[in-house]
Amino acid sequence: MPEWKEALSVPAFGLGFMLLVGAIAYGLRLDLTREIAVGTIRTFLQLMAAGAVLSWLFRARSPAWLLLPLGAMLGVAAWTAWKKAGRRPGAFFRIALALTLAEAVAMGLFFGLRIVPARPETIVPMSGMIVGNAMIVAGLFYDRLLAGRREREEVLILWLSLGADRRQAYREIAQEAVRATMLPSLDTLKTVGIVQLPGMMTGMIVAGASPLLAIGYQILIMYAIAGGAAVTAATLYVLSVPLVFTSAHQLRR
């Protein structure tokens, strides 16, 4: 069977799962028909488009072309996390910088230490996993940071009135935000291989790779994702003081 026919036939069978999702949503009167339909269609079109681009990119073998998918990946991820942050002014560029730094650290370790070969086939998928998780971390960080600011507004104002500077007051809510963003990655490390078999490992095994080799790469990715989460959260922790407090050491409205 030609490759393109196989690529179309495999997800076609998966439509049964989405019909099940639709049936459950309809039966429970959840009013999610449009969201399910849009999500199903967009998943198919976006991933097929990504597959076509990656196929061309892998054949091109030009490092310069890698900047296009990586730039698009970082831009869309930063935009998505920024929306989760309530489109707060100044947050977008901080998020973009944090995601870029997490990506640079991970790729620097991967390829600087020659852990994996520096080829498009490894750079793009690994970048997707690192940036995708960092995007979730960034959105969660701002969600928790701004929630903490609202919930502890009176305490923060009291701190400032007693002479605390904005960094001291900021630390009260930012540390908890960092903790909240890092816990999901750490919890995943505790259950991986027992409760769940991650996608990369499963994909490699299905493709015929040795289970031990697949597990080795998956462990590498899991550690890299946790590291990327820490870098993202730490970067936003350092950069986000002005988003919560003014230079006059007052709460920003």
From TrEMBL:
<keyword id="KW-1133">Transmembrane helix</keyword>
<feature type="transmembrane region" description="Helical">
    <location>
        <begin position="123"/>
        <end position="142"/>
    </location>
</feature>
<comment type="similarity">
    <text>Belongs to the UPF0014 family.</text>
</comment>
<dbReference type="Pfam" id="PF03649">
    <property type="entry name" value="UPF0014"/>
</dbReference>
<feature type="transmembrane region" description="Helical">
    <location>
        <begin position="12"/>
        <end position="28"/>
    </location>
</feature>
<keyword id="KW-0472">Membrane</keyword>
<feature type="transmembrane region" description="Helical">
    <location>
        <begin position="192"/>
        <end position="214"/>
    </location>
</feature>
<feature type="transmembrane region" description="Helical">
    <location>
        <begin position="64"/>
        <end position="82"/>
    </location>
</feature>
<feature type="transmembrane region" description="Helical">
    <location>
        <begin position="220"/>
        <end position="245"/>
    </location>
</feature>
<protein>
    <recommendedName>
        <fullName>Iron export ABC transporter permease subunit FetB</fullName>
    </recommendedName>
</protein>
<keyword id="KW-0812">Transmembrane</keyword>
<dbReference type="InterPro" id="IPR005226">
    <property type="entry name" value="UPF0014_fam"/>
</dbReference>
<feature type="transmembrane region" description="Helical">
    <location>
        <begin position="91"/>
        <end position="111"/>
    </location>
</feature>
<feature type="transmembrane region" description="Helical">
    <location>
        <begin position="40"/>
        <end position="58"/>
    </location>
</feature>
<dbReference type="GO" id="GO:0005886">
    <property type="term" value="C:plasma membrane"/>
</dbReference>
